Amino acid sequence: MSSSPDPARSSVRLDRAIFNPGAVKINVKGAFIVDEDPRSKSPVRTDGVHYEGHDIRLPHHTGIVSHVAVDIGGSLAKLVYFTRELDSPDNGGRLNFINFETHRIDLCIEFIKELKEEHEKANGPSPDQLCVVATGGGAYKYYDKLKEALQVNIIREDEMECLITGLDFFITEIPNEIFTYSEIEPMQFAEARPDVYPYLLVNIGSGVSMIKVSGPKQYQRVGGTHLGGGTFWGIMSLLTGARTFDEMLAMADQGDNSGVDMLVGDIYGMDYNKIGLKSTAIASTFGKVFRLKSAAEQESGTEGDEADEESEQTNGDVTFKNEDMSRSLLYAISNNIGQIAYLQSEKQQVKHIYFGGSFIRGHRQTMNTLSYAIRFWSKGEKQAYFLRHEGYIGAVGAFLRRKPVNWGRRNSIDGASV
Amino acid sequence: MSSSPDPARSSVRLDRAIFNPGAVKINVKGAFIVDEDPRSKSPVRTDGVHYEGHDIRLPHHTGIVSHVAVDIGGSLAKLVYFTRELDSPDNGGRLNFINFETHRIDLCIEFIKELKEEHEKANGPSPDQLCVVATGGGAYKYYDKLKEALQVNIIREDEMECLITGLDFFITEIPNEIFTYSEIEPMQFAEARPDVYPYLLVNIGSGVSMIKVSGPKQYQRVGGTHLGGGTFWGIMSLLTGARTFDEMLAMADQGDNSGVDMLVGDIYGMDYNKIGLKSTAIASTFGKVFRLKSAAEQESGTEGDEADEESEQTNGDVTFKNEDMSRSLLYAISNNIGQIAYLQSEKQQVKHIYFGGSFIRGHRQTMNTLSYAIRFWSKGEKQAYFLRHEGYIGAVGAFLRRKPVNWGRRNSIDGASV
User: Fold this and answer.
1) Distance (Å, whole) CA A146 – CA A153
2) Residue A263 C-alpha, separation from nearest chain B C-alpha, in angstroms
3) Which residue of chain A is at minimal alpha-carbon distance from B233?
4) How confident is the model over B119-155, as pLDDT tens digits?
5) Superfamily of segment(s) A32-173+396-401
6) Which end of chain B has the smaller Cβ count within 10 Å, N or C?
7) Would the pLDDT of A341 be above 90?
8) Are strands B178-180 and B383-387 parallel, antiparallel or unpaired?
């Protein structure tokens, strides 16, 4: 359907889109988030796939979109695709969000294959065949696999650049997307700001990246930490046998971290007033384990009895509740990220801190901890911002960095620049 | 033996010593570290007690010292006491270092009781009966217990102030105490600096405190993290069944963290050149666990089979090596502390960073990680400093903050100010 089926010219146009991401246009007029039960969607398969329930409706976009975007991280592959809704009163369409476990990339590929077939069914054979914009490490690691299995063009985009494009889009274009969080005022939607830059983006996936963004094309990865979502999942699955992230988060909701954490009161027997540490403050994550395990060993009289190999089974009499361990580690990892993010924001002289990535998952304790950490360390000067599509920032960015080939013809008037 | 047995006057003198810590004098002329096998000491008991092998010899101090100092932390109680060496050619004496597990505080009390008896045997009944200077949280938590069991005067000193007094002493008075560390140049002793302040002291015990010190009496706890030694011990003992810190460190020496950590190469399949991340860089601590466990579950066909309660036992077929887990967590915790310490040093505009606390234990990997983190983040501008008595900074500080009552009489000439 393109006016120019010449591959050489297509490629020039493509290059322009890649090298001029700021110039990519999408019709986001009147865009809004659709809240519905993700189970109402008919999944291709149920295992290793997670449908999100917050589609973004683009009521004024009627053109054909001939690409999907996928952000393949260490643990999850996040997919964003557009579907037209010709039967809806305002026509238009929506952005759909779905993720797959990265080690089951085959499921993701199968899903994209179906989208490709649907695209061909709807639009007939044309030079505008579906292409895939891929970002994240998996865009490199699985490049050959994707290309071979899908037989489509795979355009690779840099992970950091996609994150920025995606976040800028969410900040400036989507109402009720960005919010602050506190126990007293959960989910206060933030007003769109005209002065978006500079900001610090803290993306929490398996690991954590912190990116200072000074302008649409000005950014620097200033730091990060490898204590991230993968650490929580890994240690928790080994300690508790829990299988899914949601299971672990549900346990954390029921736990009491003081069952495993050493509090200031455990050391002092009271507040440590001189430096303002309350007795309930955490002194050492999992710090109670040493004392309780050693005390139990002492009582059972096995310590020092190193020849007895079986004692390892019989002494560890103290058991720690899965819920308590889960709450402790979730708090520790979130709080640690919060502290480092604050310190980086100070070093980089940035006031606004956005937290994204699949680790957050809209979980209250996580957001509360991150939010509290920023308020606490900054003495109320700074705030943490969250996103409803926190896991899809990079994928949406990748989606937006590809200009659909037929876009200019049908949407030249009402496209908003992102 | 004091010239003034009047308790009221003693107490005035005591107050002066407490409130004027900078004025406390100790004869450290020619002090040096004695390296000998700690096993050559005859221990009272062997369980839960750890003798150090780096006594400090004070060849010119001949006076009676009628106090011992103990720093009771969340996991360890560190004891410093002075012994005279009347049979040695130069007379004098030495500072001894020993620690006990805090949950076995009774052993520590028993040990102090023996010191008290020896003191009485040597000096006869006198108003200079042994007293105990106590610091750390346990000085509060176990105050009544110590007082009742020992029947001696217990003087409490603030933990942060003791750390500073102790570190200042080590920096300025003890040769071959402070060193820098790198793989290429392990243990390079630092020259004594005339301009000691300001510095950042990072004390790593069960938890971590970071203290900015601007002068002998000017300090502020600027931060810390509860991911410390207690976290390493706690999680490792639960995951591996190892019982002692030394056992865990020995395992770490044999491990390969890439057995459990997700590396950049695991995500990208190559370096992530654009932002300078090598494929061998750690992306997510324990981040490989998710992928490997999920893949194993998928193969054994148990996923989604939630009714089968027994599957939890049968599926977790992947096992991770204790050595690999230990190395990974030791690295993660050390590196995290290193990063936060660097960022705090930036915020506080401090160039010198001292790492102390029992977590370090002279362990190569730990020191190398901390050292590398400071060099890496500061682009070579800053350095990490370590101490041979890293675990005893607070205890030594507490020891020095008490002026022995007979001190002035015998050592008024050659005492050096600390």
Assistant:
1) 9
2) 9
3) A290
4) 888 877 666 788 999 999 999 999 999 999 999 999 9
5) ATPase, nucleotide binding domain (3.30.420.40)
6) N
7) yes
8) antiparallel
- Residue B221: which residues within 8 A CB-CB, separation 6 or more? A275, B160, B209, B210, B211
Nearest to B71 by CA among B191, B197, B165: B165
Across the strands, what pairs with B37?
A: none
Pick from B160, B274, B336: CB nearest A227: B336
Strands B32-35 and B416-417, sheet pairing: unpaired
B365/B61: higher pLDDT: B365
**Proportion of chain A above pLDDT 70, given as a percent:** 82
Host H or E run for residue B118? helix B105-123
3-class secondary-structure state, position B329: helix
Confidence band of A45 (pLDDT split at 50, 70, 90): very low
Q: Do B284 and A73 touch (CB under 8 A)?
A: no
With a cut of 50, say whether residue A220 has pLDDT above it.
Answer: yes
- This complex has an ipTM of 0.85
Fold identical between B32-173+396-401 and B178-260+320-387? Answer: yes
Distance CA A17, CA A401 (A): 7
Interchain pair B235, A269: CB under 8 A: no
Interface size, chain A vs chain B, as Cβ–Cβ contacts under 8 Å: 255
Out of B207, B343, B347, name the one closest to residue A287 (CB): B207
Place of tokens 């769109």: A192
Residue B28's φ and ψ, nearest 5 degrees, are -110, 10
Quickly list DSSP for B58-111.
Answer: ETT--S---EEEEEE-SSEEEEEEEEE-TTSTT--EEEEEEEEEGGGHHHHHHH
Domain boundaries, chain A: 32-173+396-401, 178-260+320-387
> Measuring CA to CA, how many Å separate B166 from each of A112, A233, A302, B183, B203?
64, 41, 37, 28, 12
In Å, how far are A11, A65, A127, A204, B160 from A4, measured between CA atoms? 11, 16, 9, 41, 73
Q: Please say whether the beta carbons of A221 and A160 come within 8 A.
A: yes
How many Å apart are CA B200 and CA B256, to the nearest integer? 32
Are residues B100 and A235 in contact, defined by beta-carbon separation less than 8 angstroms? no
Fold of B178-260+320-387: Nucleotidyltransferase; domain 5 (3.30.420)
